[in-house]
Design brief:
The chain has 211 residues and is an all-alpha fold. The chain has one domain. The chain is 73% helix and 0% strand. The protein contains 11 helices and no strands. The chain is elongated, with a radius of gyration of 20 Å.
Amino acid sequence: MTDTTQPVTATANRSPLAVRYSARDLLNVAIFVVISFVIVFAVSMLGIAGPLVMLFTLPLSAIAAGIPYMLFLTRVRHAGMVALFGIVFALLFLLFGHPWQSTLLTIVLALAGELVLAAGGYRSKWAAIWTYTIFSAWFAGPWIPFLLDPEQYVRGRLTATMGAAYVHDFVQVVTAPALLGMIAATLVCGFLGALLGTALLRKHFRKAGLA
C-alpha cells in the first residue's frame, strides 16, 4: 500500500514563537533596514533648510518609513525578526552619530513591538499597525540629550556641526514644548504611516494572511 501522506515541512511545523533565523529572514531584515534608513535619512536631511523645517519634516519621516516597515511585517512569520530589525536599525544609526540613549530606546521599542505582534499571533493586521506605531517613537531618541541638557546640546554637537546662523535660529525655534509637540506629532504620523502602508499593501497583507 502506498503512503499518500504528504511530508510536513519544517516551516509548517515551526511555532511562531520559535526564534530561529533562516537565510531569507536575515536577508529580509537587512533589505528593509537599509530601505528604512535611506528613507528616514533622506527626509530628515530636509531639516538642513532650517530648524522650523526640521520640526515639520521629522514627523513626515514616520509616514514615509511606515510603508517599507509594513511590507517587512508581511514577511514576518515568527518571533525575533522585529526585534532583530530594531537592533540592526539602532546600531546603524549609532554608527552615523546618534546618541547611545537613542540606540537603547530604539531596541526597547523594537522589543515592545515584538510583544505586540506576538500577541496577535504574527497574523493580525491591527497588531502590525500598532507595532509600527510603537516603533515610530524611536524618533524621540536622538533628542534625549537635548531634553536632558539643552544648553550643552547646543554648545556641543549642534555648534560643531551647524553654522552660527542655524544655531541662532535653532535656539529660537526648538524649545522643549515645541520638541514634545513634534514627538507627539511623530507618533500620530507613525499611526498614519502604518494605515497608509496597510492600504497600499493590501494585496500583500491578504497574501500573508494578515487579517
